[in-house]
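Recap from last week: sequence in, structure out.
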Amino acid sequence: MPQNNYSYTPNPAFYSPLTKEFIKEMKLKGNGAIGHLVEENKNNSGNLLFILENLGYLPTSFDSDWLFTLLNYNNEQVRLWVVKNIGKLQNENYIDILYQVAATDTSTAVKREAISSIGRMRSQKAKSVLFAMLTNEDPKIICQAIRGLLVFKGDEAVDLQLKGLVNHENEMVRTVIYKEYFAKQKEKTSILSHAETYPYLKDVVVNGDVRDVLKYVPDESIHLTFTSPPYYNARDYSIYPSYEAYLAFLEEVFLETYRVTKEGRFLIVNTSPVIVPRISRAHSSKRYPIPFDVHHFLVQMGWEFIDDIIWCKPEYSVKNRVGGFAQHRKPLAYKPNPVTEYLMVYRKQTEKLIDWNIHQYDSKIVEDSKVKDGYETTNVWQICPKSDKVHSAIFPVDLCKRVVEYYSFKGDLVFDPFGGSGTLGRTAKSLGRKFFLTEQEPKYVEYMKSFKTETSIFKEDNTKFLTLEQFKQTVK
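Predicted C-alpha cells:
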C-alpha cells in the first residue's frame, strides 16, 4: 500500500463545512490528504459519512490505508461506505479482507455489500469466496454471490455450483437460477406483434357470459385488464349458491384472462371485503375477505403480485357500521366504517423485464403515452365513488383514467370482463386506447347503448354491440 508522506495542517476555516468540491480537491492532492481529513473527523460520524459518500471514482493508486482502519467503526453506515470504497479499488488482494467482513460483521447490510464488492472485481480469485457464500443463511447474500458468479457463466465449476441451487428453499434464489439455466424460450402463441391486437376485438361490447365469450378470444390479445368482479351475494345481479361457487367462478374467469393476456402485461382487480346481512337479530352478519381469497388462486395460476393500491372514499359515501357502537361504546362491538377498496395489481408471469415490454413499441407511441405531471405518487388514491339509478357500483372515471394511463400505451386493447355501465371502455377510448367489454346483464348493455349520442365515443359507428352468436361470427 502507498506510504502517506503528505503533511496536513488542519485549517477549520478552509475545510469547514465540508463540501463535495473540497473532498475532490483533497483526493486529487493524494499522498494522504484524504486520510488526514478523515483523521480530523473520525469522532464525527456525520462528517465521516459525508466524506465516504462523496469520494467518487478511486484510482488503483489511491492512498487507501486509512479505509481499513474504519472497518470496525461503531457506525453501520460508515462501515458500509468503507466497504463500498474498498470495492471501488478493484484490488483482488483485498478479497480476503472483504470476505472476513462478510463472515464477521454484525450488520447484514455490510455483509451483503462486502460480497457485492467482491463480485464486482470479476476476479478468478473471487470464485472460491463466492462459492462459500452460497451456503449462507441470508438469501440476499446468496443472491449477491450468485450475481458475482454469473460473470463466469459457462465455467464448468461455476455452472455446476449454481445449477444445484434450483431447488433451494428460498424463492428468490430458485427464480434466479431457473431463469439463468432452466427457462425455455417461450413459444410464440400469437401471430401478432406485442403492440398489436385483432381488429374484431377493438371497441366491442359483447352481451354474454364472459366465460363463453373468452373461448373465442385468441391467446395473447389483451394488453390490460381492469375490472371489479360482482360482489358476492350483495347485489341483485350477483347471486351465487355459495361463497366457494363464487370463488370458483372468478378463478375460471381469471384463468382464461391469463391466457388471453399478452406476455408481461397487467391485471388490476378492484375488490373489497363484502358483508352479507344477517337474517335476523338472533344471527350474525358474515364478512367475506374477497381480495385475500382471490389473491391465492391468482398467484397459483401464474399472475405475479406487483402492488396493492388503496382506493379511499369519503366516509359520508359508505354505509354507517359504527352507529350502534357510537351509542353504547361497549368493547367487542366496534365495527369501523369501511372507506377503502383494493386495486390489486398483477403481471402475467414472464422471464422478461418491463423494459422488454416497453421496447416492443415505436418510440413515438412511447413518447405520446408518457404520463403527464400531477400523477399519483402513493398507493392511496382519494377518489369519490359513483352510482346511478341503473347501476349501483359504477367505476369512477378518475379511477379508470389512472389505471389506463399508468398501465397501458396508446393503441392498446383494454379489457373489462364485467363491463357494467361501460365506464372503462369510454375512458379508454378517450385516452387513445381500444376497448373490449363483456357484460352478461342485458339492461347494462342497453345502458351502454344510451351513451351513443352524436358527441359520444360510444356512437354507433365507433362501437359494436354484439350478442355472443354475433361475436362468434366476427372471429376470424
